[in-house]
């Protein structure tokens, strides 16, 4: 039996489920809006630093695969941290959207493949 997280990974980009929390969802005019905030877990590459969460970067909105005939918009807020010792702002280097688009990598690759037929 699949648990809730495993089901979500079938429907949404896996990195979102692993590193972000769904904080809100709504349907407006046949468009599903899913709101994500990055979890407050320090990136592995920065575990040697003393970091303090300092809120979020501006939200980005990207298109993803339609669900049940409805458009899907992913609203994503990435977290930022401050290095307590140096005062530097730290953030993960996410590749959330396909270059030159406003859609997820998977969705852009899918559209590229079907346009060849």
TrEMBL record:
Top-level division of the source organism's lineage: Bacteria
Name recorded for this polypeptide: Transposase
Organism this protein belongs to: Kaistella flava
């Amino acid at each position: 039996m699949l648990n809730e997280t495993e089901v979500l990974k079938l429907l949404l980009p896996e990195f979102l489920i692993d590193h972000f929390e769904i904080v809100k969802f709504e349907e407006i005019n046949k468009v599903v809006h899913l709101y994500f905030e990055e979890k407050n877990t320090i990136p592995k590459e920065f575990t040697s630093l003393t970091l303090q969460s300092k809120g979020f970067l501006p939200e980005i909105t990207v298109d993803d695969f339609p669900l049940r005939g409805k458009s899907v918009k992913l609203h994503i807020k990435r977290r930022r941290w401050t290095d307590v010792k140096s005062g530097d702002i730290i953030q993960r280097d996410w590749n959330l959207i396909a270059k030159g688009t406003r859609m997820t990598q998977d969705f852009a690759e899918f559209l590229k493949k079907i346009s060849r037929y």
